[in-house]
Amino acid sequence: MAFGLYSLIESAILCLNAICILHEERFLAKIGWGVDQHRGFGESPGVKSQVLNLIRSIRTVMRFPLIGVNIATIILKLLFG
Predict the structure, then answer these.
(1) Percent helix, strand and coil across the chain, each to the nearest 5
(2) From CA 50, how far away is CA 22, in angstroms rounded?
(3) Under a CB-based contact definition with an 8 Å cutoff, are residues 16 and 58 in contact?
(4) Where are the beta strands (DSSP E) in the chain?
């Protein structure tokens, strides 16, 4: 199996799907990455809170476009193998 542009795009889609299905209360809270992250006034956010913000942003922005991209990927896989 050759590594090409389609394989790279497909792996990016799979990573976005993995990020979008992470549930904060069920999974992230168990490993200590829950919503209840407190920081003081004027403190810069740490790496953990920045990653959590990135996960929330990806989940918010990519929810509906990712559905269309997944459907297109499935159709392409069915047609061209």
Answers:
(1) 65, 0, 35
(2) 16
(3) yes
(4) none
